[in-house]
Amino acid sequence: MPFPTLNPALTRALDERGYAEPTAVQAEILQAEAGRDLLVSAQTGSGKTVGYGLAFADTLFAGAERLPQAGPPLALIIAPTRELAQQVHTELTWLYAAAGGRVVVCVGGMDARSEARALSRGAHIVVGTPGRLKDHLERRQLDPSALRVLVLDEADEMLDLGFREELEFILGQAPEERRTMLFSATIPRDIAMLARRFQKNALRIDTVDRNAPHQDIEYRGMKIDPNQVEAATVNTLRLIDSPAIIFCGRRDGVRAMADALIGRGFTAVALSGELSQQERNNALQAVRDGRARVCVATDVAARGLDLPELGLVIHADLPTNKETLLHRSGRTGRAGRKGICVLMVPHTRRRRAEQLLSSAGITATWSTAPSADDIRAQDRARMLDDPFIVIPPSDEDGALAYQLAERYGAEAMAAAYVRLRRTALPAPVEILGARSGNEPASTFTPAPDRGPRDYSAGRPERSNEPRPAFYEAEGVPMVWYKTSVGRKNKADPKWLLPLICRLGSVTKREVGAIRITDNETRFQITEAASEAFMTAIRDAGENEIRIEQADGPPTEAHKPREFSRARSARPEGGDRPDYARAKPRFKPDSAPRSYRKRSV
Description:
The protein has 600 residues and is of the alpha/beta class. It is 37% helix and 15% strand. It has 4 domains: 8-206, Rossmann fold (3-Layer(aba) Sandwich), CATH 3.40.50.300; 217-370, 3-Layer(aba) Sandwich (Rossmann fold); 376-424, no CATH class; 467-549, Alpha-Beta Plaits, CATH 3.30.70. The protein is built from 22 helices and 19 strands. The longest helix is centred in the first third of the chain and has 15 residues, at 82-96. It is globular.
């Protein structure tokens, strides 16, 4: 379906950008009745910015071929974050450039005086964040009297960030006779109430399939040890050769990950709330220009950002909820492009990751981290099929290549090419337990909703059979280890088991029997996990307890601790023992005179 008849200037702008036909949300918006308020829920990356830019064009042009001379703004777009506002400003600037449109952006972190001067020179469209727009309105630097269109982009995010008061103030300052468009990923109760209050007969447009995740994104769950996040991220970036964004939960995690990647040879930038707006703009521009292949960010970059070439999203830290998972992942697979989303899942967070995927209706392919051998094999394949080799050389380059081949030989030249390519690539990391290329990956499919459990017949009995008996019955080979703590050190499986799992990067299922004696504790690790367990113990350095391999189970029998004194039995029908007799209660009248309450 081609674009409907538009203003000639907008049509030329779309042709220059390669827009052949509208996306689903753009088609729905453009089919709406002219001048009508819109309440739209659309999937991230669906092209809604260009969609509403085209939708309010008739309102701005008012039948003319070009926009009038810039004065008080005709359209106001409110966005939740600085990055999204900057991105909307960029999109609308190229869309309206041929029509003489002047677009001004007003966001926190930038010079407010420069923005005021830009507003005083006139603008057709103003894009900004709620706090900065309210500030300009209060200072009378932004004149809302001529507004014909007001757009709330990512309205649910603005409410989540606590901008309700600013939004209500801005909406209250706008003229009553205006067109209001509200865009939100979801329409919760707060958004619906806001729409009823500030919109008139709004047309509801919903292009989101609630039962299906983003079809252009391939989800992968990567099972790793807790101390392998950085190594697994490095190997994933090497295996999937694409511009990528890595999400970390905290600012210090962003700094550490970015520094580690730069140290390994990646061109990476950091993006978090602790940076100035200029630094954040520079980081995003470096990714857009191709000067940086990797952006490490907090959730400040989870919404609205459009990095066109981005093909990979890595969740170094698991998102906190389903919405954050979908918005982070939505940075790739945009506008019909395919993308890959990888979740780094330590074994201690496997259940949480499965709950997140199930709540979002996502089917993920599970595997371990890519091995260094997999990456080397892929590097060899890429070198053999490198399109750079088959490009016909210029006459000058061909003559020089002939002289080099004559002097050194073709084999030496090919070896030099291989060395040059390998030195330009970050080295892969050797990861214990990484999946080889021949090992098939498993698939996690969301479990069906079974509804509430029925305990009318009583809860099912839990088996008291110890874990060692299970391993022995199944014939699982085990290896014994020992520690230097025992009963005298108050050793207890309640704190020993989590400590063993953390230090050795193993799961509870890989720990067998635990035998505590007076002076030491011996425990079993499955033979399959034993080598990785010992490596993790060595790499951990100085630990709370010392762990080493043992020659077998303890020789001292494991006996329960005996009580030092048996409780005296009360004679049947008789009195309590002397030491257990109740003492008489304290009565004020029997107290010494000095302790009695003095009457007044």
